[in-house]
Amino acid sequence: MSNQYPQQGESNKKSFCYRDGRFYFTRQAERKLFFILTIIMLITGILYKIGIF
User: 7-44: buried (b, 16+ CB within 10 Å) or exposed (e) per residue?
Assistant: First the structure.
């Protein structure tokens, strides 16, 4: 029996596409994007508290 579902590293789809004036993300790409934005907000908040930013 072969597995019909793609394995973790076998995905050949794009992580996002632009259609009708909107961006559509895969679930994994959306999680990565929001994680990166959260880290940026955290660093910005720390720098603001220190007085650098």
Answer: eeeeeeeeeeeeeeeeeeeeeeeeeeeeeeeeeeeeee
